[in-house]
Amino acid sequence: MSRIISVHSFRGGTGKSNTAASVAALLAAEGQRVGVVDTDIQSPGIHTLFGWSQKAVRFSLNQYLWGICDITQTAHDVTASLDAGVPGRVYLVPSSIKANDIARVMREGYDVGLLNEGFRQLVKELSLDVLMLDTHPGLNEETLLSIAMSNTLAIVLRPDHQDYEGTSVTLSVARKLNVPDLVLVVNKTPPVFDPEEVRERVEKAYECEVAAVLPHSDELMALSSAGIFALRYPAHPLTGLLRKLTARLTA
Amino acid sequence: MTERPGCVLVADDDMVNRLLLARGLERDGHRVRAVANGLEALEALRDGLFDCVLLDVLMPGMDGYQVLECIRSQPKFRHIPVIMISALEDIESVVRCIEMGAEDYLPKPFDPVLLRARINAGLARKRLHDLEQEYLEQVGRVVAAAADVEAGRFESRELDSVAGRDDALGQLARVFQRMAIEVLARERLLKQEVRQLRIEIDEARAARQVAEITQTEYFQDLQAKAATLRLGPDAQE
Question: pTM for the whole thing?
Answer without folding.
Answer: 0.63
